[in-house]
Structure formats: C-alpha cells, structure tokens
Amino acid sequence: MEQTFIMVKPDGVRLCLVGEVVGRFERRGFTLSGLKALRIDRALAERHYAEHVGKPFFESLVSFITSGPVVAMVWEGRDAIAVGRAMLGVTDAGQAAPGTIRGDFSLSKEQNIVHGSDGPESAVREIKLFFGEDGLV
C-alpha cells in the first residue's frame, strides 16, 4: 500500500468540487485515510512550496493557496502516487486531457483545482506538513 497527498485548492473548494474529487478517488478503489479542511497560513504555504522559493511565480502560488479554504487528504492504495497524478492531469490544466480532474474543470496552470504529490519523498513530506510530524493519519 502506498500513500499520497491530494489537496483540493481554494478554486476547487469554491467551485464545490470536493465531492467530485473524493468520488473519483473512491471509485478508482483508493482508501481515504485522512481528510481535513483548513485555511493555509503563509508559513505553511511557504513550507509547502519551498522548492519554488526564488522563482518568479512563488508569490502568486502562496497568495493563491492562502486565498481560501482547502481540503487536504491522504489516499492509499496500489500505485497511489502515479495513478493519483494521472487522475489529476498535467499541471498546466489548459493542456490536461479530458477525463482528468484538471482537464474537466480548469484551464489555468496555477489555479488548477488540485495538488498531488509527485513522488514518494514529497508524499511523506506533505503528509507530515498537513497531518503532523509523525505522519500518521
């Protein structure tokens, strides 16, 4: 069993897509092992996007992710990270395939409905950031 971190971003919450995202992961056969709604503060946003510090789009990422509530989730199952990323679609939602979450609901690169861990290390790091240092959910 592999765990991945999936987050519905403020635009996804605003568009009432939390149930859609949850439903797609459930129908795919994944198990929801952690879920919380929260408003991300600047400190958490900066830790979450630490790999982008110094890039020209860093401030807009932080500003967007702190602009409204998000729903943070931990999903588990076989190949959860790779399959979860495929379900989300490519980051630039304007290029995302129909049938993916981003392809069906967004046209933006930054405001693209969802975030998903891109590998095992980021999954562990993100789960700890949002669900506690012990990483248990």
Describe the protein in words.
The chain has 137 residues and is α+β, with helices and mostly antiparallel strands. It contains 7 helices and 4 strands. Strands 2-3-1-4 form a 4-stranded antiparallel sheet, with helices on both faces. It is globular and about 35 Å long. The mean pLDDT is 95.
> Can you list the strand order of the major beta sheet?
2-3-1-4
User: Nearest-angstrom radius of gyration?
Assistant: 14 Å
CATH homologous group name? Nucleoside diphosphate kinase-like domain
- Number of structural units classed as domains: 1
* Unreliable stretches: none
**Straight-line distance between termini:** 14 Å
Mean pLDDT: 95
- Give a quick account of the main beta sheet: strands, pairing sense, barrel closure: 4 strands, antiparallel
Could you outline the blueprint of secondary structure elements for this entry?
Blueprint: E1 2-8, H1 10-14, H2 18-28, E2 31-38, H3 42-48, H4 58-65, E3 70-77, H5 80-88, H6 101-105, E4 114-116, H7 120-131
Antiparallel strand pairs: 1-3, 1-4, 2-3
List keywords for this structure.
4 strands, 4-stranded antiparallel sheet, 137 residues, globular, 42% helix, Alpha-Beta Plaits, alpha+beta, 7 helices
Give the structure's gist in a few sentences.
The chain has 137 residues and is an alpha+beta fold.
